[in-house]
């Protein structure tokens, strides 16, 4: 199973590059935020996989939980910010 | 001899990685913001739920496994809410949806 987890980590690291292209070249700021959210989702899985590889999942699972909450709050706050930014003009 | 727990883990994690790959390809291939949001929100949510379910099978019924199930429930609630808020903000910001026959947004801008 150790080998399987290593291969899944390598595969997800390659998959992360694909939304990063959208973060770099997205035409609007919302495309960049969308790509950042997709990268955050995959990073959460990679944190859990690193916990499996180091055999300390009981420690890394708390980091993953906090990362999920922070990513959700970040998306909500930026969405509210750009909504009010347009309303001010 | 591979036992049932490892087989379930490999099956679920492979299916989740497949759905995440499909969602990531949709992020770069589709024409405008709303179609990209549709591609990434649904398939990413399904993919991460499948992968974490596979980890919960591997971990078993311990404290860590229960925390994994808590993360699955939180992702199932928060990921669609976040993507809906982002799409709503983009609509009120003034981004026009793409219709069939129009040029692609990212080719038009660059």
What spatial form of chain B do the alpha-carbon principal axes imply? elongated
Gyration radius from CA atoms of chain A, angstroms = 16 Å
Strand content of chain A: under 5%
Tally of individual domains of chain A: 1
> What's the helical proportion of residues of chain B?
over 70%
Report the portion of residues of chain B in β strands: under 5%
> What is the N-to-C succession of helices and strands of chain A?
HHH
What about the largest sheet of chain A?
Answer: none
Mean pLDDT of chain A: 89
Oligomer: heterodimer
Question: What does this 3D model show about the protein?
Answer:
The complex is a heterodimer of chains A (89) and B (110). Chain A is built from 3 helices and no strands. Chain A is mostly helical and 89 residues long. Chain A has one domain. Chain A starts with a helix and ends with a helix. Chain B has 110 residues and is an all-alpha fold. Chain B has one domain (4-108). In chain B, 81% of the residues lie in helices and 0% in strands.
Ordered list of secondary-structure elements with their pairings:
The complex is a heterodimer of chains A (89) and B (110).
Chain A: H1 2-25, H2 29-54, H3 57-88
Helix pairs in contact in A: 1-2, 2-3
Chain B: H1 4-29, H2 33-59, H3 63-93, H4 105-109
Summarize the structure.
The complex is a heterodimer of chains A (89) and B (110). Chain A has 89 residues and is mainly α.
List keywords for this structure.
heterodimer, A: 89 residues, mainly alpha, elongated, B: 110 residues, 4 helices
